[in-house]
Amino acid sequence: MTATSITETVTPPPRPVRKQRARQRLLQAATKLLLTDGNAATSIDQIAEHAGCTKGEFFAHFDHLQQIGHDVSDRLTRHAIRRIGCFQPRSGDQLVTTLALWASILITRPGWIRLELELAAIDSSSRAQVIWRLNQLRNEIRDLLTSSTHLPDPCIDLDLTIPFLLAAIVGMATEHTGDLHTARTTTRDRVEFVLRTAGIA
Q1: Nearest to 201 by CA among 136, 159, 151
Q2: Which one has a higher pLDDT value, 199 or 116?
Q3: What is the pLDDT of residues 45-66, one digit of tens each?
Q4: Potential cystine with 39: which of 108, 118, 152, 182 (Cβ 3.0-4.6 Å)?
Q5: Which range of residues forms the domain containing residue 20?
Q6: Residue closest to 135 by CA, chosen among 102, 115, 162
Q7: Long-range contacts (CB closer than 8 Å, 24 or more residues apart) made by 152-160
Q8: What percent of the chain is modeled with pLDDT above 70?
Q9: Same structural domain for residues 72 and 147?
């Protein structure tokens, strides 16, 4: 059998498979560009070109840039929640380590925080989606804190502690210098400080 006849017998993937692959390439390209350059500096043309797709293929999957931005943030949030949910710390020290590990991943990818802030500034509908994702993260952290064997004292105000913890992480992300080792050490120290101050660890 010749190379030509082999080529002729290869059938392309079904159309739904090709569409799904194009969508995945668009999301991967958007993730890279939006986290690196931000929403304001990224265009639909850039995403399509980076994905090896046409602008028409982009609009076959997404109505506008805002929609793909939210899809990127949704995926990042689901991934973060899965990471948090994988851990079952059995002591205060393990709890600190778990949260510090998750926080260090977020801190070394500050583009996600910037993207969420840019999306929240677009309009009230977009802001509501950002708040919904933030609440999902808060709920997952609450479940982690209350389900660990090192249970917090019932009088601890988690509604105050969790936002303070997230604010500390966001603050560290904005000052991140690119030194991964320093970021992890600093992250653990600050997470531990917040939890100890709250009486959790």
Answers
A1: 151
A2: 116
A3: 999 999 999 999 999 999 999 9
A4: 118
A5: 1-62
A6: 162
A7: 152/198, 152/199, 152/200, 153/199, 156/198, 156/199, 156/200, 157/198, 160/198
A8: 82
A9: yes
